[in-house]
């Protein structure tokens, strides 16, 4: 992966799509991944009424990480809301004939 994320491939017991589940409560879930290139990331998911707050935290520990994130960030800001919207649509349609 271009971001160098070290995703966990051992199983879903404490991970979501390879992201380590660092904390999970009724209020939020915190997922995290280390990075081989100095760009570890954390994701927060927090339900708010009928919407979902999603936040990405990315550390950029060196010039290479900063340069890569500068290229990736605009696409990330477009793709993530799209994917979450698709997932929400599929979830709301579950159980329909």
Quickly list its features.
globular; alpha+beta; six-stranded antiparallel beta sheet; 97 residues; 1 helix; 6 strands; single chain
Textual characterization of the structure:
Helices cover 31% and strands 34% of the residues. It contains one helix and six strands. The model has no long low-confidence stretch (mean pLDDT 87). The chain has one domain. By secondary structure, the protein is of the alpha+beta class. It has one helix at 63-92; strands at 5-6, 15-16, 19-24, 29-35, 41-48, 51-58. Strands 1, 2, 3, 4, 5 and 6 form a six-stranded antiparallel beta sheet that branches.
Task: Put the structure in a nutshell.
The protein is an alpha+beta fold and 97 residues long. The protein is built from 1 helix and 6 strands; from the N terminus they run E-E-E-E-E-E-H. The longest helix has 30 residues.
Number of strands: 6
Helices and strands: which structural class? alpha+beta
Largest sheet: 6 strands, antiparallel
What share of residues is helical?
Answer: 25-40%
What sort of overall outline do the alpha carbons produce when their principal axes are compared?
A: globular
- Put simply, the count of helices is 1
The stretches of 5 or more residues where confidence is low (pLDDT under 50) are none
The figure for the number of domains is 1
Mean pLDDT across all residues, rounded? 87
* Span of the ends, CA to CA: 38 Å
């Amino acid at each position: 992966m271009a971001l160098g994320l070290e995703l966990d491939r051992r199983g879903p017991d404490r991970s979501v799509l390879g992201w380590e589940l660092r904390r999970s409560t009724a209020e939020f879930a915190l997922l995290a991944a280390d990075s081989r290139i100095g760009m570890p990331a954390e994701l927060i998911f927090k339900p708010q009424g009928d919407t979902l707050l999603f936040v990405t935290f990315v550390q950029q520990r060196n010039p290479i990480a900063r340069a890569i994130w500068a290229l990736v960030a605009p696409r990330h800001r477009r793709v993530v809301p799209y994917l979450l919207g698709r997932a929400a649509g599929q979830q709301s349609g579950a159980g329909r004939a």
